[in-house]
Amino acid sequence: MIFYVLLLLLALLALLGRPRGLPPGPWGLPLLGYLPWIDPKAPHLTLARLARKFGPIYSLTLGRVCAIVLTDPRTIRRLLAKDATSGRAPLYVTHGIMHGYGLICAEGALWRDQRKFVHNWLRSAGGTKLGGRRKLMELLILQHAQELVQHIDAALKRHAVDPMEALRHHLGSLVNQLVFGRRYQRDDPTWIWLQELQEEGCKLIGVAGPLNFLPLLRFLPTYKRTMSFLVEGQRKSHQYYQKLAKEVEPLVPLDRNQSLDALPSLLEEFLREKRLKSGTEDGHRFYSDRQMDHLLADIFGASLDTTLTTLRWFLLFLGVNQDVQRELRLEIEAVVGKRAPSLEDLAAMPFLEACIAETQRIRSVVPLGVPHGALEDLEVDGYRIPKGSLILLLQWAIHMDEAQHRDPERFNPRRFLDAEGRFCKGEFFMPFQTGKRMCVGDELAKEIMFLFTASLFQSFRVQVVGEPELEGVCGITLSPQPYQVVFQSLA
């Protein structure tokens, strides 16, 4: 009886301490907020249930952090167009490790400069819609996609295999070439270590994890091991980046029309920019060794993990839905035939584009979005968002909204096709988020997904073995559970 009285008193204290003007939401406990009720294995499901109860904008406390959760795309687009929402949320794990460096956790002048720098690098490398090097980027992506096809054909076809290792190696080889300007053999110890570090790190850094909001937990054995792994992994990977930089820097030409390769790597471009701006205030602030280490880690990790996860879900859902797969192969055969696919084919292949979009919808790779931070007091839909609040764009709830996506758990690419069969994504679809901090590499990700999926299903019929689990495992990204497929050659 005493326990329930205390619980009621704590709840009343929490309600009385709730700032006025906030959106509605559940009460929480002092110090802990709503954290005890967040499912650590599926936080997106907990938050989606609250959205159904409290509406498209609601608030809750996580530890001592005020969190505003949004599930209406129109409100999200309106809010994220403001400079005041371009901050980053005060999450202990990311801020405690990254200290505001890189691109993902950067804010203010550093973020603006580095986002512009990364965008310019992508444009010079052919990773945007416009630019003279787009064809070179296409050839580079195709090279890695075809090497994946050749590896499957030589070593994996007709056997039940988990495609994870093959996909990660060949996608990773592409990302390594783009970010660092180098490739690794499949059995290279450094590459194996980098893959393991990336995979484990993505599992441990969860947006809704208690450690992000209760830093004192870092002294408990479980969380202490987590932080030790992340900090030590970061230290060693940054040492490796510095080693690569020392090897590359003497070779980097200052003339941007010259390059170590046909396409400039991110590392090469950063070192060039660092030399051009040496001795200036911008060079000191934005092109330090520490910033380089964090930026390389951000772009490498975000590019590999999100694209790999999407491709794994794509294979899984196409392997489960054989009727969809047959229709996809017919489109590829009609448009591409036996030649290599090209980015110019995309406009003539709406069903493949719809299959990719449906994969991104049904299993949002980043179900909680990438949290933003309010840099000043804001108002949205009559509610107040206090300065310092965490702003969550709940992609899962948007993409699984029954009012907008009928039978949302059914894999149905035709929901992205109009009456004439043309691709049509609609406003309730935002896999790369929106606003000033939307994914800077969205076009490159689309190029990679299109050319890899077209190459794979041009060559193979994919059959899933057994009854796979489709819920996924939630870390930074929502990844599939391990599954097995059989690749059957179409030749």
Automatic annotation (TrEMBL):
GO molecular-function term, one example from the UniProt record: heme binding
Signal peptide as annotated in the record: 1-21
Annotated heme binding sites: C439
Keyword annotations from UniProtKB, A to Z: Endoplasmic reticulum, Heme, Iron, Membrane, Metal-binding, Microsome, Monooxygenase, Oxidoreductase, Signal
Major subcellular location class: endoplasmic reticulum
GO cellular component: endoplasmic reticulum membrane
GO BP annotations listed: organic acid metabolic process; xenobiotic metabolic process
Cofactor: heme
Topological category with respect to the lipid bilayer: Peripheral membrane protein
InterPro entries: Cyt_P450 (IPR001128), Cyt_P450_E_grp-I (IPR002401), Cyt_P450_sf (IPR036396), Cytochrome_P450_fam2 (IPR050182)
Subcellular location: Endoplasmic reticulum membrane; Microsome membrane
Oxidoreductase listed as a keyword: yes
Function: May be involved in the metabolism of insect hormones and in the breakdown of synthetic insecticides.
Similarity-based family: Belongs to the cytochrome P450 family.
Name under which the protein is recorded: Cytochrome P450
